[in-house]
Structures are given as structure tokens and as C-alpha cells.
Amino acid sequence: xxxxxxxxxxxxxxxxxxxxxxxxxxxxxxxxxxxxxxxxxxxxxxxxxxxxxxxxxxxxxxxxxxxxxxxxxxxxxxxxxxxxxxxxxxxxxxxxxxxxxxxxxxxxxxxxxxxxxxxxxxxxxxxxxxxxxxxxxxxxxxxxxxxxxxxxxxxxxxxxxxxxxxxxxxxxxxxxxxxxxxxxxxxxxxxxxxxxxxxxxxxxxxxxxxxxxxxxxxxxxxxxxxxxxxxxxxxxxxxxxxxxxxxxxxxxxxxxxxxxxxxxxxxxxxxxxxxxxxxxxxxxxxxxxxxxxxxxxxxxxxxxxxxxxxxxxxxxxxxxxxxxxxxxxxxxxxxxxxxxxxxxxxxxxxxxxxxxxxxxxxxxxxxxxxxxxxxxxxxxxxxxx
Length: 385
Prior knowledge:
Blueprint: E1 5-9, H1 17-32, E2 36-40, H2 49-65, H3 80-86, H4 88-97, E3 100-101, H5 112-116, E4 120-123, E5 150-156, H6 167-177, E6 182-185, H7 188-198, E7 203-204, H8 214-222, E8 233-236, H9 242-255, E9 259-260, H10 284-293, E10 296-299, H11 302-310, E11 315-318, H12 326-334, E12 341-342, H13 359-381
Parallel strand pairs: 1-2, 1-4, 2-3, 4-5, 5-6, 6-7, 8-9, 8-10, 10-11, 11-12
């Protein structure tokens, strides 16, 4: 059965450049192939005073009584006004480039009439199956279980290499997975997780951003108003540390390059609760231009690494264990780029990073991977798996 009307379910389209561009890329690729697709916007919901109080109380219990010391006891709750200010550029990008729908409308389940509008639900990509990031059952389409709606997982990610769910939830996810037309995952080790815990034969496919070409992203930059980058070594660091800052400086000095960032001057969070213009996220197109203008990329981000590869820029990526190592290792291994991945404790390896990358060889491997990925996606949508 051909998929006539598709709804893509992915992580919220907020202020993360990688998340926004993978959502853009998957929808764009489907539209290019002639499908009618929209993507769940999952707009930010703002807590009331009583909801904030209840959340703070739960955090205090978790931190002080249950001794889960990683739980923040005094989080920052952004106001609607603050959120609209810091996300004005990313929201514009979504409005202009991604067809969206508020699928869940603030609840755990969409209405029956909303579900009925679509023939197919495509889940992915990004870490939609990571337990700490979202309600995973929603991304296993529990709202459509027992219906004739087609469900396809494209490059869905668990985020971690180990299984995260207890026996009860595992049984429920296994039941839901059985209703999928086909399942593909972004990390190689997730194939085994699906086989062992879900009883599903999953296919390893590429992140949606790799389904588009460098020219597709350059076109976004060329139609936008962007300024020349402030240097020639792009530094995109999500989890800042003194060690990473030192590594970045050393790499810049070794290569005689000028480092620059395309990020807010200050991030609005529990340590910085004052919102002003310095907290605004730059344009998505300006972030992309950073890769175009760079001679080298230094990052701890998966998508920072991906776009360095797309734009054929030599790079060093610092292993980001808290966000999940599997996705870094899976892609670098596949493309023969494992030597570009370092940890914060491996600063002595930085001199190895000044070598050029054989991107002709990388592209050859990537082309084969992209072909397998597209064949999976379109075969699943056409019911030919």
C-alpha cells in the first residue's frame, strides 16, 4: 500500500541545530520523492505555578531522599516571552522550511480524529527511543496500536548502547514494535538491541541529514541573510569544559587558525536566568555557513561531526559520553574515520588530527550507505519490505 499522507514523529523542533536539520532533511527527502509529509512540531509547553511547584517538589525528593544527585533541584523554567526571544531565529527556520503539525496537542495521546488524518507514521530520527528524553511509547506509536495505520521507524535511536527498560515496559515495547511495517536504527549496536529485546529485525541506516547533499544545505545558506564567519576554525561544543576549551585552543594554535562559534553568547539556564539579546540562538543558516567557511571543525556534537563530513572539512570530535557514544562510534567506524574521535583524556592525540581526510574515500563509503538507507525507507513506505 502506498503511503499517501505521512506524519513524521521526532524530537521537538526547538533550539538544537542538529535536531532541526535532521527533521528538515527527512521531510525534505520525502517531499523530493513525491510524498505528502508533515512533521510533529511538539511546541514548548509552559508550566503553571502549581505545575512548577510540583515539579520542584519531585526533584527535591529525588535528589535528597532517593539520592539521585544528578537531578537539579532548582531548574530554570523559561517564560513564553523568554522562549520566543531566544528561539526567534530557529522558529523562523521551522516556519519557512518545515511543514509542521501539533500532533499531540500537549497531551500524551493525539485525538482519534488527528490520527485518522494520516496513512503512515514515520518515527525518527534522533534519540526518540531514549527513555530520559521523551515518552518512548509515543514514539512506538501506541496511539495507533491495533489500527491499520502503517508505522515505519527511520534511523530511530536509543541513544545508549545498553537496554534502558524494565521487564514490564520491554514487553509493551515489544508488542508495539510488532505493529511496525519495518524498523531501522541509526546505530549499528541498536540492531542487536532490537533483535534481543524487541524480537525485531532492524536495519542500520544513516542519519537523515546524510540523505541530502552538500548542495542542498548550501542552498539554504545562499537564500538567507548571513554574515561571513568570524574565523576559520569552527568550534561547536554542547557540553563545555576547561579541558575542551584547552584542546580547542591548542588545535587552533597548531593549525594557525582562528576559532569561532555560532552559538548564543550566553545560554539561558539555571545558572543564567537573565534573558537578553546575548541569549538568542543564531540563524540555522549561519550555523551551516560556519561549516562552509571553516578550514577545520572542532566539536563534541554528533551532528557537528556529521556536517563536517558533509562539507568535507577535517575535524576532531571529542567523545561525548553523557549524550551517548554509540552514534559517534557507529558512524566513524563505518566511514573509516575512527581516528578523528578522541576523549577529553586524550589531548596528546590532537597532533594526529592535523592530517587531511581522504574525503573521496569517505564519500564512496557514504554513497553505499545512503543507497541502502533510501532503499529501506522507500520500500517500507511502499509496503515492499
